[in-house]
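FAQ: What does a multi-protein file look like?

Like this. Sequence, then tokens, then the next protein.
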Amino acid sequence: MSVFVLKFNEIDREDIGLVGGKGANLGEMTRAGFPVPNGFCVTAQAYREMVKFNGFDSKIREMLDGVEVKDSDKLQRAADRIMKMVSKADIPDEMAESIIRHYRSLSSKTKNPLVAVRSSATAEDLPEASFAGQQSTFLDIKGEAAVIQAVRDAWASLFTARAIFYRETNGFDHFQVALAVPVQLMVASEVSGNMFTINPVNNDKRIIVIEAIWGLGEMIVQGTYTPDHYEVRRDDMTIYAREINEQKKELTRKNGVNKEYPLPKWKVGRQKLEDDLIVKLAEIGEKLHSHYRFPQDIEWAMEGGKLYVVQTRPITTMEAVERQSEMSLKEESSLRLLVKGDAASPGVAWGRPVVLKSAKEISKIKEGDVLVAEMTTPDFVPAMKRAVAIVTNSGGQTSHAAIVSRELGVPAVVGSKDGTKVLKKEKLITVNGTTGEVFAGKPKEQDLKYTKRDIGAGLVETATKVYVNLGEPELASSVAQKNVDGVGLLRAEFMMAQIGKHPKKMLRDGKRKEYVRSLAVGLAQFASSFGSRPVVYRASDFKTNEYQNLIGGKDFERPEPNPMLGYRGALRYITDEQVFEMELEAIKMVRDKLGYKNLWLMIPFVHEPNELLKVKRIVAANGLSRSSSFKLWMMVEIPSNVILLEEFAKAGIDGISIGSNDLTMLTLGVDRDNEDVAGAYDERNPAVLWMLETAIKKAVKLGLTASLCGQAASQYPDLVEKLVRWGITSVSVSPDAVERTREIVAQAEKRVIGGK
């Protein structure tokens, strides 16, 4: 007896042959209690019955006979003829009546609910045979006749040009593959997106990746919008990283039509999903991962604050990602950077860039070219198979371009913003899909390194935290993807230089709010990118000669004989509170109004404890008080900081950060920037080592965290081992030294624990 229609709660994962991978997973999740919208599945048996009833078998064979799938034009013409025929198919009465009966029973509120009609091929969504966006989905279908027609159109989509191409190139017989059609209640998505229960770009099993956009989720797969990107640690469900991207339009239903509408201004740059919902969604992902005992690629939607899972399938790109891990670019390569986007598919490749305006131009791509486009759709797949690398202007790690690139084993960069404009001028480019960078020209052999990563081994772990030194907001999101525990030194000076004008000139010109807002925007970029990881902002430490270089600087700064030992750091804050208060207001805005509680404060160049007390009073008067989420650190860069550390601790601080560069200069009396005496500068000098050891051991005894920022931690493994033995809690290094330093720290910790 043929079964034409089954409710989701009548299906489980063993029914792939009957309802396809998508249908089987919807049934499995429903029966397991996951939040799946109510629905039913028109089975593969129904499809086969329809083909037999209409005599389509021989007709389809005839239409495909002799078609060369690499000839895009001929393939498209054959596909159009088949689809037109199937979309007008006669449906047996018994089958049509069963579909209508199940449709009417979906909702107790209305006989004609809005539904999504999806496609689920019996060879689709299997670990060895998956491809993004092969068959069609129809949204907001309403009424019995419309549902029946949408089922026909879903069947017809089994014969799109891309689906025919895929089956031919992957060895699937067109007539052994059938199509089931899941029909489920529409979620009027306020926010929607995708989730991976491991990082799909590098197979890191410790991270859950979530991407989100406003409105319906079709645009995230198409890559039309670049989504928000959130990363959550699987072990403790803390938000590890986030990147907020502007979205100016959303696909939503109004007046009975799905259409793109402009977003109100307040939503354009806003985080799409609140933190508590990010964590709740990650928890659902973790449960699905555990239920299936395999990493999952999940589609989700939110309506009225409630999260729904509308699809899950195994992640199919893990082996391809592993194969791509052998060749990479050295960080110090000689290549010139052209554009930067998001890493979507790892590996390095180079070739002639070819910009495609639409899928109609895919014949332009030849073997060995780099495909560059605004975004890709499933119609681009034949060209994607010929390309050595892919670059798109928009899209995220869950866009069509990203998923298919990983499936093909092709390096890809998505979200490059203006890649189509910049790259069309180049004759040869290199795409680094591991870092999201695109360079001019071809790498030389010395630019490349060959390593076989231990995929699945996860991140190198150390008890000593490895932080990063940063100043440029535009680097925050990419550096946050590294194996780094936070920002140990966020320099104010770069952001102030970008503003370009002396802060006192801004005050004099009545532009206080503008200055505060500019600082806050930069700080928010760091805080949002690093999620729950701390971002330690070092208040401004411009010297007078550096302030003089800003517009208006000469009006407010007097020349000094030795700026390094002059009017800087804490002394400035006490003498001229107004400028310092603008920084504090920016911090408060980011923490209180924007909700990024991971932003802390560090005070540099404090001469003596009473100076610190005065600075603290200003901080408190501006509404910032030490708490579990707001730590106050002090830079240790003057010998008096080490000698009087007990007194500084009594003034009230949570931690210290040793500025090894200044502390070495001031301990040895050597200017490292003066080539005549620079040879005497050495962080391993016994006097400097005494300072480091004393500061760290005192901090441990006083219950303070102790960090070290500077080049020493990445340059001298023997020094790192000493720091670990003395009890250092963190080191903070430049972005290019993060991985190297983590390895050095890990080895040092092993030797210390082993007593060697």
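And here is the next protein:
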Amino acid sequence: MMRYNDVLMRTVALGVLLAANSAEAQNAASGDARSGSEDVLQDIVVTAQHRSENIQNIPIAVNALDGQTLKNRGVTSSEDIAEFVPNLQISLPYGVGSQPIITIRGVGLNDVSTNNAGPNGVYIDDVYMSSPASQSFQTFDLERVEVLKGPQGTLYGRNTTGGAISYISARPTDEPSASVHASYGSYNTYQVDGFVNGPLDDRVNARIAFNHNGSDGFMKNLQTGQRQGGTDDYAVRTLFEIKPSDDLTLLLNLHWGRQQTLPTPYHEVGTLDPSTGGFCSTAQVQASSCVDAYGYHGPSNLYKGNYNRTEETTVAANGASLRADYSLEDVTLTSITAYESSRRTDPEDSDSEPLRLLEIDWGVTSKSYSQEFRAAGGDAALHWVGGLYYMNEILWQNQTSRAFQDLDLVFGPGAGEGVALVGGDTSRQRTSAYAAFGQTDFDVADGLRLTLGGRFTHEEKTFATIGALSLETNGAFPAATPIYAANEKLENNAASWRAALDYEVEPDIHVYTSVATGFKSGGYNGGFLASNPVDAATQLRPIQPEKVTAYEVGFKTDLLDRRLRFNGAAFYYDYTNMQVYNLTPASNPGDLPVSVLVNAPTATIKGVELELSAKPLSGLTTSLNLGYLDARMGNFNLGGVTTSLENLTGNRLPSSPRVTAIAMADYAIPLANQATVTIGTSASYRTRQFFDIRNNPLLVQGAYWLLDAQVRYSSPGGRWSLGVFTKNLTGTKYITYGADLSNPFGFIQQVAGAPRTVGIQATLHF
């Protein structure tokens, strides 16, 4: 710990020294270049602390992407933003339409069950998305996205230990406007989105935004000749801003979305020796020389397979929120009332082979209600905010698994007797969360500002589940027999706090330090449980709350007359009872892999982030973001349901590459007729990462680069634009998730990342 603290202090000292050495030159620079000039870096205004502030002036590690940047970079869904934020990973374990696994600075939960929200909150217009299935959605007509790093325990509705991602929609204005954007590219991929905005009368403004994404998908089904894994999404959002009086503003948000498409199939990699039937070595598996339990060897091409399931994935979501802001003389009162509903069914071709080896039907429905009250006030020397929060969610799961159903076809009649099975699991989970929170920041000396915040949380969770199993008997499957049933209740209380110091060395140079604690409530294993009732009861033991203490130091600077921005942060997280997930292999013949959700006693995360933005030439904007991460388990022995203890001490946390790097450049070239050609490029790099806590060498993605590019022509006045783009220009092959089902099925599941795509796009403003 002492050694790492020394590294932290050296990092900050270096940043302060660089900033201080540049300050004199900056102050001596001529001219009045400010944020309104095109030749300087623009101010980025965020609401990370529930008020509008320059991102450079707040003692918080936050990355922000504005709506135009999102559109220029081809961001169409919530998981796309990970390509542009250091130390952020977002993967979809079932492909398009599935719930995301979000990891910020190594903090995440790779549980594929649909009842456990991860340690990173997802907010849309200040409304927490409680169901994991609702956290993957289309992004359109956004003002910006903010990624907050570190525990969010004093301001945000749901306490989180890792961070928060906040999506902010563009609000209605009283200036009539409209826009439509369309793109078309590889794999018959298209997008159409737009908005209409303007006043309905003197006190009501409205904005209607829409989006439609379509694609055949880049995975090829050799059985049918069709492509799979595409999209067929529709979404509409309507905002009404109503001002009944000069002191009261209401914002009504009504939204609806739907997706219906062939699901993204896995790439199957066999793990059994075709000669002996035993397990292959790691080298043999990586050489693609092995087969699954049926003896099937799939195509080595990452984007092709023989898939026997062609049912569609369906996702439907809708909701409404009402925000009221009432201004008194010295205080602003805010109320946010929200209702969210989502439903997802996913017919997973789990084995990705022609016969029925393993198939799972995932079904989840969630309905949630939340209410937040806030009061805020103060002035330039002191600001405060406090509030109350309540959330109630009911979540239903309906899951069916089918295993070895074609065993008789492969090994002869009777081979499936007592082995082939149909299993069912239904559950109902109810979560009630209550919280009181507050934060204040005030000047304690000239240029020195102190932030203090606290929160008390009480959560109640009930979980009722029933499991049933039917084994093949005389070539048929009789009525399922109940194998487990439970009705559990869990309550957690916790207090969390934050303290930060921010010192203004110069008007554009800030250094800060902070200490924050975070809390994530306990929960239940919502996956398939063991067929043995004793083992199932073990799986149903609730996991305990996880807690973290996070230390951070950093600096934020605008230099060289605001043509250079250099920010940095170093952090250290100390975890207790970190919640971790593992898919435990079968231990006995006839058993299936089972989900294990447990607490790791300790974990530590150390890291550094650097951000460099510059405008070296008129029209040229460049940025470089670097992230370094060392995220590891402490002393931890993982015990399976029926397996012996496995020492995982020192293992790297899932989805935590040691280094991430993101570089972007945009060069706007003025033409003689006042039109503009803009050339944009972005590159992202990630070192090796594991997809499970066991650091399985078969569940790893090596280091890789992704390169995107765009060229866009904008007409005089910017009324319309036309461009071409490419994503993954070099055709890098990589995976975004993996699962080991070697025992007893004999294969590894891999989710392929998107290959190279090219396309054209156009935008028209009215």
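Q: Is there any per-entry metadata?
A: Some entries carry free-text notes. For the entry above: Residues 1-36 have pLDDT under 50 and may be disordered.
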